[in-house]
Amino acid sequence: MLYLTLLTLDLFMKHRPGLLKSVKLTPGWIPPHGYSSYFYFFAYYHAAVALDALAALDDLEKLRDDLLATVEPDGTWVDYEAIGKCYGTAMALMVLHLAD
Predict the structure, then answer these.
(1) Along the 100 residues of the chain, how does pLDDT read in single tens digits?
(2) Rounded CA gap, 92 and 94, in Å?
(3) Which terminus of the chain is more solvent-facing, meaning fewer CB atoms within 10 Å of its CB: N or C?
(4) Measured between alpha carbons, how far is 30 from 46 in angstroms, rounded to an integer?
(5) Taking CA 52 as the corner, what is the angle to CA 70 and CA 5, rounded to the nearest 5 degrees?
(6) How far is the C-alpha of 89 from the C-alpha of 8, rounded, in Å?
(7) Model-wide pTM > 0.70
(8) What is the DSSP letter of 13?
């Protein structure tokens, strides 16, 4: 089980920069690109939980830096336009808390 967790986290960390390219700010999910940022924040949060459990501080810092690079000018994060910033901001703050 630990091996699979480590393998999955390694793949996530390797490919995470590409996740932002496919995020869009609408409720539609049109493959192969254009997924709601819901999935982006969901992936980041669950990766952060696993990395925190493994005390992988360097990788948690990378997640923190990724999220801080996408913050809106008003200090929030957008999920998608239909529901605004509540979900994106909450998820980003949960990741940042784990990465603190």
Answers:
(1) 788 999 999 999 999 988 877 666 555 555 656 667 778 899 999 999 999 999 999 999 999 999 999 888 999 988 766 677 898 899 999 999 999 8
(2) 5
(3) N
(4) 23
(5) 100
(6) 25
(7) yes
(8) H
Cα–Cα distance, 7 to 47 (Å, whole number): 12
Q: Which two tokens stand for residue 59?
A: 């990788």
On the CB side of 15, how many CA atoms lie within 13 Å of its CA?
Answer: 11
Residue with tokens 């869009």: 24
CA dist list (Å): 20 to 2, 17, 33, 56:
27, 6, 10, 22
Distance of CA 34 to CAs 30, 47, 49, Å? Answer: 5, 21, 25
Which of 66, 72, 93 lies closest to 84 in space, CA to CA? 72
Distance separating alpha carbons of residues 23 and 10, to the nearest angstrom = 21
Q: How far is CA 58 from the centre of its chain?
A: 16
